[in-house]
Amino acid sequence: MKEKTLEIGKNGMAVLLLSIALYLASIAAIVLGVRNDLPAALGVGVFVFCTTWILWPGLKILGPQEALVLTLFGKYAGTLKGPGFYFVNPFCISVNPAAKTRLKQSGNVNGAGNSNRDTFTAMVQAQDSKKISLKIMTLDNNRQKINDCLGNPVEIGIAVIWRISDTARAVFHVDNYKEFLSLQCDSALRNIVRLYPYDVAQNVDTTGDGIADDGSLRGSSEMVAVRIRDEIQNRVQEAGIEIIDARITHLAYAPEIAAVMLQRQQASAIIDARKMIVDGAVGMVEMALDHLNESQLVTLDEERKAAMVSNLLVVLCGSHDVQPVVNSGSLY
Fold first, then answer.
1. What is the DSSP string of 197-220?
2. What three-state secondary structure class fits 115?
3. Contact present, 171 and 96 (Cβ < 8 Å)
4. 143-180 pLDDT tens trace
5. What whole-number distance in Å separates Cα of residue 137 and Cα of residue 208?
6. Which of 162, 147, 134 is nearest to 247 (CA)?
7. Is the overall model pTM greater than 0.85, yes or no?
């Protein structure tokens, strides 16, 4: 089923004024019929007074980026779009199965203190609940605990930017398009995250081409977000929903392994730092020996060179300040 936009005039105000005029005329006819004993005028006045209200359910008010999906005796009549005051067939019914569903997103959450709202506000909200928003909305889905490709539990959350592109599909192809979107986001996120390690790992193929790569959740967040967005779009296409973007908002190891992984990262950082220190120290020792040989300031045999190298490495690679022992006697 495809969306069918109703092309009708904005005649709501004219019909409203007409109904008011009919009510005034019916009251005048009733009064005239009672005073002058005119049964025909009285009957017409009573009939008009009792039936004019039938026009009012056909009055529809739409704001910017709002739509109404209408059905007539169970058949899809069309979608009303565009801001204005409309009049449609009074027997048309607005349909929005997701009207009472509240997702975790801005502008669509239950607020506190509803007990102080007056009756008029409640009536307006009841009418607006059938409207479908065409605005760009953000779904902040709950964080999930998912095992990455190495089996490590990871906590991850995403924010999905979406909007309704086809109101007929959103209303009639799925039972509740908001719940459908939320569930498909969870499923797509789990399906993509399990393909990546949290951090770069060896012999891991994240693209499916059979070649190991450096993809990871932490280092390839842009690529992961694009794949999540495409996966969600493929799943919700039938519901008339367009996924504009998807972004990772939270990424961390699960609490049960977070401390161990932190120690692992610290150990890896310490090893990398020590390796850099040793490489620098060896280069400095080599440079010192070359300078001594070039200047011929002192001649050292192999045993003394080994002792000098050992002492320099201890001084350069040590994690604490060195307190040297000065030999004020002979060279040997």
1. -SS--TT--SSSSSS-----TTT-
2. helix
3. yes
4. 888 888 888 888 999 999 999 999 999 999 999 999 99
5. 32
6. 162
7. no
